[in-house]
Amino acid sequence: MTVPPRDTALLAALKRSFGFDAFRPGQEAVVRDALDGRDLLAVMPTGGGKSLCFQLPALLRPGLMIVVSPLIALMQDQVRLLRESGIAAAFLNSTLAAGEASQILAAAHSGELRLLYLAPERLLMPDFLDGPLSRLVQGPGISAITVDEAHCVSEWGHDFRPEYRQLGLLRDRWPDIPVFAFTATATERVRADIVQQLRLRHAAIHVASFNRPNLFYAVRPKGAQAWPELLDRARNGGCGIVYCLSRKRVDELSARLEAEGIRSLPYHAGLDAQTRRRNQEQFIRDDAQVMCATVAFGMGINKPDVRWVVHYDLPRTIEGYYQEAGRAGRDGEPASCTLYFGAGDIRTAEFLISQKLDPNSGEALEAEQRIARQQLRQVLDYAQSGACRRTIQLRYFGEAFPGDCGACDNCTQPRTTEDWTLEAQQLLSCVARLAQRGERFGALTVIEILRGAESQKLIDRGHQSLSTYGIGRHRSLDEWRHLVRALLHQGLLAESTDGYPVLALVAESRAVLKGERRVEVTSAPAPRETGRKGSRTRRDKASTTAPVTGDAARLFERLRSLRKQIADAQAVPPYVVFNDSSLREMAQHRPVDSDAFAAIPGVGSHKLAQYGPAFTSAIRAFLAGRAADVEVGANPLEGPPHAV
Ligand SMILES: Nc1ncnc2c1ncn2[C@@H]1O[C@H](COP(=O)(O)OP(=O)(O)OP(=O)(O)O)[C@@H](O)[C@H]1O
Ligand SMILES: [Mg+2]
Ligand SMILES: [Zn+2]
Fold first, then answer.
1. Given ligand 1 and candidates 331, 545, 578, 580, which is best to mutate, with the most ligand atoms within 8 Å of its CB?
2. Domain count, the chain
3. Which of 61 and 489 is assigned the larger pLDDT?
4. 302 lines ligand 1 (CB under 6 A)
5. What average pLDDT score do residues 457-464 get?
6. How many angstroms does the Cα of residue 183 sit away from the middle of ligand 2?
7. pLDDT over 70 (residue 310)
């Protein structure tokens, strides 16, 4: 196939500046529209590679690119990464001294700076608009205004920021400057809001698939084995996040992991801001392996090499789960997302929903409770389903996925479904008989009646005379519980949430009782095979890349510690130096000279010059069997690190 010259030039620029050999899906089309100076909205999942879609055009188009970003942490992270690739980028925010800010503006003016990051408050200050910004428009010119995390303009999104609403002012004032909007929020309503609020003109709209093929999704029962499984996962290595519902649980789990020798830190809103910041920084710098956190932890975490995310408690919504689990594997390398789920979670969730009360009147906030209940049902569907987990998640975002993904527990070890119509009828008719007597009970009592328990309570209440007494002895207590859960989540039975949960029939129950509807129940998930063999098989299927083993694994670890030393010496996170995929390629291809090193993905011209010598000599030393003798001082690079 002949490649048009423009492609070659674009790919060369991609490799030179960022070290990548190819675009990720969807990136190239966005970059082309950006280069053409069109307004655009690009919707891509977390870790999809949105930054590159405006950063590469910023290098290729004349003028300075303004980037609007909502969080200082996000700006710092991106600017750090860009500078590390030798790209002239800077941010203006409250952390800078006055002198620094004017230096940056001077660099922008001279045309030296390619990208300038700002918070919307700062950008929209009248003094800034009339002063520096107007001068920049007159001087080097503005290539485009990029609005990152653009969902912040929408009240329908999850991180609404009123200042984002004012950004439309820029369009009114400088109608010829293109506006690029980026977000990972998938809903239609938010997209429409972005186009309207930012006053985008004939915008090119790009919506990428929300499928994250490198993530392996699994749901595990929350029984006694949950903790040993978690420990096992942490011991197998890789950075991980454990999400819990309560602060107490976060603290407990983190302490327990620490006690087992795993470097773990807590993160939740009960910790003071300084501790939170410190813990986050330690995690980002690989000084801690595991972060135990509530959902307070997340926004602004760009760490690309999180290898696993565990939800120790049930998430509230599918979207929340998708975003939280999606913090794994932003670098595109294989990563796993595991949700632990037990019957107790349903009760806790329902209790929390019932606590949604009007603070003034103390009355139930009915609309909110109804929405929360519906969201809970969707999460339960996800947790209890035997279908492809990806299909369920993507359906939630309106995307049809054919299933059989090969990278979720249900696709790699399909669960069988069984016909439990008879048992469902027995259970529902027992609930109906009780209702006829004006009695309502919780699942346990109903199951005791079905199993013909001989307890004094049942005798006193005359339950032994019910026609359904003892008709379900052939099933165990756990099996009946499993059926009740399945009926609840399939909407064939209801459980009250007004404190003491009692069972009640719903309209759909009749169809089952009349034999018009069959009830299929997925068999309970089997305990995970223990030992390395089992988990290795899983990982192979999840990954598109082979796991690093043997000698390559040892070299990988060696390169990892070199990376950590370099990063510490420069006070940056290790992933800023190289990400895991680059290290894996180095460990496999073992480049020992500059040309071979340049071919490694993630090695652009700047990093080649800066790090090539240190890494190739470490590899040479390793190959010579002298890995232990490699001399690495406090700063393993000769000379001071380059800074822009
Ligand atoms: N073409 C590419 N080849 C290889 N890696 C890439 C490519 N483009 C981006 N990446 C890597 O993908 C990771 C995620 O990119 P980025 O931070 O731009 O994600 P994002 O889409 O902005 O996600 P979020 O919504 O979380 O902000 C980064 O580690 C980046 O280096
Ligand atoms: Mg981003
Ligand atoms: Zn699947």
1. 331
2. 4
3. 61
4. yes
5. 91
6. 8
7. yes
